[in-house]
Specification:
- The protein has 2 domains: about 300 residues, SGNH hydrolase (Rossmann fold, 3-Layer(aba) Sandwich); about 110 residues, Immunoglobulin-like (Sandwich), CATH 2.60.40.
- β6, α9 and β7 form a beta-alpha-beta unit.
- Helix content is about 30%, strand content about 20%.
- The two termini are about 45 Å apart.
- It has 10 helices and 16 strands.
């Protein structure tokens, strides 16, 4: 997880433009982002920090990054260069997550960390992978016709407890504290937060308090940055390739918590990379990160900047129990909100499951799925029989589901469940 972020008066207008040009020239000369750049924080764990293995060192003159050593620079993968971090939080966190339980002493760890730091300074690609941030920034910049600045803060493997606002007093020795200090270094002029985290809670079964901690993180960060409406774009956790039985339910729980959090706080939006390719058992590939960065940028364009024509978060809006007149089969009619164009899938739309008393029953399976020809935002789930007991619907079952439904702008349906199946 670790290895493997207009014109009221013409003179005033001309003066303002002159000040902006002068400010931007000053920024370029002093290696700072332009004054009109929109600044976004990248936080979470490894799928935000990046573990895509295919190298991609693309740059964009309109996307900047605040490197972890405190220098502003043109954004280039990898964005999260934790071995170069001046804040102790990253070295301490790396030790806590990867070395503490081994027999290696702090002195041995420190020597190895310093060696990797020197290597990272010479060749950053050697010690970090590809994440979604630069693709988010590039798409946002291209669409907005303005510069974007990124503040990478993520740490691979970090639990939400390591991001606790209660550790703020530790300053740069805590992930939350150093993120806050980096945000304050730009006078709190943060446009929004990209958050991708939760795999650790799913892996280690830390699901019971996750919702409370995520909401607390959102609330405290908004308060500390002085912006009660600060937008959050959350990435629903994706997949883990495992057949360990007690892992399956944990991944479902974290995904559903993340989906529901968007209904409990304003200006919190969800997308997912659950359908994207992996480069190992749990980390999104470079190709997948490109699509994920685009998806997050589309959500920002439509929901934060309120620009029409861009992708919006998709969510389940309604479930109806119907009967097909031709076959006599009962089916569930699903309708989704936020769909651009129409839903499509590679093959039959998947993965949906009915459970009764928490278990699957072959008598009441989803035996066939179809995109609804009469509803561009609809899917039909045909059932082998109408459930005779209260039942629940799940989409994206277990740790490693096959998800394949997107809309015309490549925005995906999220995993969800349990959702009550209506009784006719």
């Amino acid at each position: 997880m670790v290895r493997s972020i207009r014109f009221l008066y013409k003179p005033i207008c001309c003066f303002s433009i002159g000040v902006l040009i002068s400010s931007n020239l000053f920024a370029q000369k002093n290696n700072l982002p332009p004054a009109n750049a929109d600044i976004w924080i990248l936080a979470g764990q490894s799928n935000m920090a990046g573990a895509g293995r295919t190298k991609d060192t693309m740059t964009s003159g309109q996307v900047w990054m605040l490197n972890m050593d405190g220098r502003w620079m043109t954004a280039q993968n990898p964005l999260h260069r934790i071995f170069e971090a001046t804040a102790p939080a990253y070295k301490l966190g790396f030790y806590e997550l990867t070395v503490k339980d081994s027999k290696k002493s702090w002195e041995e760890f420190d020597k190895e960390f310093r060696a990797i730091r020197e290597s990272s300074i010479k060749d950053p690609v050697s010690s970090a992978g590809v994440g979604p941030g630069i693709y988010f920034g590039r798409h946002l910049s291209e669409q907005m016709k303005r510069p974007v600045a990124l503040i990478p803060c993520a740490l691979g493997g970090a639990t939400i407890e390591l991001w606790s606002p209660l550790k703020k007093s530790k300053g740069d020795s805590s992930l939350y504290g150093t993120m806050l200090n980096r945000a304050r270094s730009v006078n709190n002029k943060i446009k929004g937060i990209l958050w991708s985290q939760g795999e650790s809670e799913a892996m280690f079964g830390l699901t019971d308090t996750y919702e409370q901690k995520l909401l607390s993180f959102i609330d405290h960060l908004r308060e500390d940055l002085g912006n009660p409406d600060l937008p959050f774009v959350i990435v629903q956790i994706g997949r883990m390739i495992t057949d360990v039985s007690d892992q399956q339910e944990k991944w479902e729980k974290i995904r559903e918590i993340q989906r529901k959090v968007t209904t409990k706080r304003k200006a919190v939006f969800l997308t997912t990379g659950i359908d994207l390719p992996l480069d190992d058992a749990v980390h999104t590939s470079t190709a997948g990160q490109k699509r994920l960065g685009y998806r997050m940028a589309e959500v920002a364009l439509s929901r934060v900047y309120n620009i029409p024509g861009h992708g919006t978060p998709i969510d389940l809006e309604s479930v109806s129990l119907m009967e097909d007149k031709t076959s006599g089969l009962s089916y569930l009619k699903l309708h989704f909100s936020g769909v651009s164009g129409k839903l499509s899938s590679c093959g039959a739309p998947s993965q949906f499951e009915i459970r009764i008393d928490g278990k699957t029953d072959f008598m009441y399976t989803v035996c066939r799925t179809e995109l609804d020809p009469d509803d561009p935002a609809g899917i039909k789930l045909f059932l082998s029989a109408k459930p005779l007991k209260p039942s629940k619907l799940f989409c994206g079952k277990g740790a490693n589901p096959v998800m394949n439904v997107t809309d015309g702008l490549d925005m995906p349906i999220p995993a969800f469940g349990p959702v009550d199946v209506p009784e006719k």
